[in-house]
Write a structure and sequence with these properties.
three-stranded mixed beta sheet, 14% strand, Zincin-like, alpha+beta, 6 helices, two-stranded antiparallel ribbon, 5 strands
Length: 141
């Protein structure tokens, strides 16, 4: 969305604390059977992806990275898995805020991003997650 007066993207202005609360709310909204199976994982908020993270995905200047899962998916952990630093889900505040013109839209995008990254934790591919997200949106209509 653009502001016709300045032709600049309209973005949601929100404090870090308020954004972190949206992320916490999104985690709490994950269905309990999934949430209870999440172990050894940290969820953090960063302002934006680092240049190295952007290079990792081959992102162009105008591409956005909303969230990132770093770790070994649950489906690939063996019996010897243990004494390992936590996996990490990073939610990027600035790209999400730029994408969203209002709080309701931001809340929904944060939820979708958190759920998407949790899906990677459970071993789901991007293609599978996109299909599930499309199905969820269809059911909401």
């Amino acid at each position: 969305m653009t502001d016709s007066a300045s032709d600049q993207p309209v973005s949601m202005k929100i404090s870090r604390q308020a954004f972190e609360q949206l992320v916490l709310d999104a985690i709490e909204a994950i269905p309990k059977p999934f949430r209870e199976r999440m172990e050894n994982i940290a969820v953090t908020v960063e302002s934006r992806p680092t240049p190295a993270q952007r290079r990792q995905f081959g992102l162009r200047t105008d591409d956005s990275l909303l969230g990132l899962y770093e770790g070994l998916p649950n489906t690939r952990r063996g019996a010897a898995y243990g004494n390992i630093l936590p996996d990490k889900i990073i939610i990027f505040q600035e790209p999400l805020s730029r994408l969203c013109p209002d709080l309701d839209t931001l809340r929904e995008e944060v939820y979708q991003t958190v759920w998407h990254e949790v899906g990677h934790y459970f071993g789901l591919s991007d293609a599978k997650l996109r299909r599930l997200e499309r199905e969820r949106k269809r059911k909401q209509r």
